[in-house]
Amino acid sequence: MATAIAGGAPSVNVALRKTLDLYSNLRPVKNMPGVKSHFENVNLILVRENTEDLYSGLEHEVVPGVVESLKIITERASTRIAKFAFEYAKHHGRKKIHAIHKANIMKLSDGLFLRSVRAVAAQFPDIEYKELIVDNACMQIVMDPLQFDMLLLPNLYGDVMSDLAAGLVGGLGVVPSANIGDECAMFEAVHGTAPDIAGKGLANPTAPADEQHSDARPPRRTEYGAADPECPRKSLPRSETHHPGHRRQGRHTGICGRGDRRTQSKVIPCPARLLACWQGLRALLPAIRWWAQDELPVYELAPRSIN
Asked: Is 144 labeled as catalytic in the residue annotation?
C-alpha cells in the first residue's frame, strides 16, 4: 500500500517497524555487474536507526498556520543501533564507521545520538570511528564514495542518504533494505512502492531478489537447501535487456531462472514467526479501516511519504 503525500492514511511501513520493533535498517550499497554507474568498486553499508527521530511522524498544529514536528532521540535507541552497527562491522570484516549528525545545530538531540555512539565505539578499538555533519557527508559521498565503509545514521538522515547512495550504483532498484529486530525481520527494496508502473512489466526485482541472500538476512531452514547468494548479480551481465532502472530500456521477464527450485525457499513456520505475522496484521488494521471507508477522512496534519 503506497503512502499518500500530504494526506491519507499513516504509513503502513512505519507502523510495521514500530509494532515489530525493527529498530535497525540495514542497506548495503554496492556495484552490480552489468549495471553502468558513475563509480566502480562501491561497497558500503548504511545502518539507519528505524524507530524514532522526525521520521516517526509525531506532529501537531500549535495554532492555525503553525505546525510542530517532534524530533525524539533517546539514549536507549541510539545505543542499541550503535551496538548493532559495530557488531555488524566486527562480524563482517568492516574496518571503519562514520556517524552522521547535525549536532552543530541540534546540540541536544543529535548531541545525545553522538554521545551514545561514542560510548559504544570505545568498546570496539579495532574499528576506526569518525563523525561527519550530514550536509558535508552528502557532498563527500558523491565526490568519493570509496572513502566510506559503513555509515551510522539517525532515522531521517538514513532515509535521505541511502537514496543518495543508491544513485551512485545504478538507482533505487538495485539496493535492498533489511529491517531487523531482535525477534524478526522484514525485507524490502529501498524505493518502496511504485504503483505508477504496476502491470507494465517494468517492476525491477533486483533489490528484492538480492535481499533474499543478504548477509543481514537471519539464517533459516529451506526445503531445497541454500540458494546461490550471487544469483541476482550473476544474471545481469547475461541478460539481453536491462530494466530501465539499470540505465537501459527493456522489459523484465525473469531473474536467474524463475522456475529454479534452488531459489524457491520455503520457510518453515515457527511460533515466533507466526506471532510476528499476527502483530504485523494488527499494525495494518488502521490503514485497512481507512481504505474501506466510503469517504476519505480529513486530516489537519498529514504525514509525508514514507519509503
From this structure: no
**Contacts (Cβ under 8 Å, ≥6 apart) of 72:** 52, 53, 56, 58, 109
More confident residue, 255 or 202: 202
Which one is catalytic: 53, 149, 159, 210?
Answer: 159
Tell me phi and psi for residue 179, to 5 degrees.
-100, 115
Among the listed residues 135, 144, 182, 215, the single catalytic one is 135
Quote the pLDDT of residue 296: 40
The more confidently predicted of residues 8 and 146 is: 146
pLDDT given for residue 95 in this prediction: 96
Distance of CA 125 to the CA centre of its chain: 27
Active-site residue 55, yes or no?
A: yes
Is 163 an active-site residue? yes
pLDDT computed for residue 306 by the predictor: 46
Domain boundaries, the chain: 22-58+67-266
Whether 159 sits among the annotated catalytic residues: the reply is yes
Q: What pLDDT does residue 90 have?
A: 95
Rounded distance, CA 39 to CA 72, Å? 36
The residue with cell 543518495 is 164
* Candidates 30, 71, 83, 163; catalytic one: 163
Query: Among the options 55, 88, 129, 157, which is catalytic?
Result: 55
Query: In CATH, what number does 22-58+67-266 get?
Result: 3.40.718.10
Torsion of CA 212, 213, 219, 220, to 10 degrees: 50
pLDDT(191) > 70: no
Out of 102, 228, 234, 260, the active site residue is 102
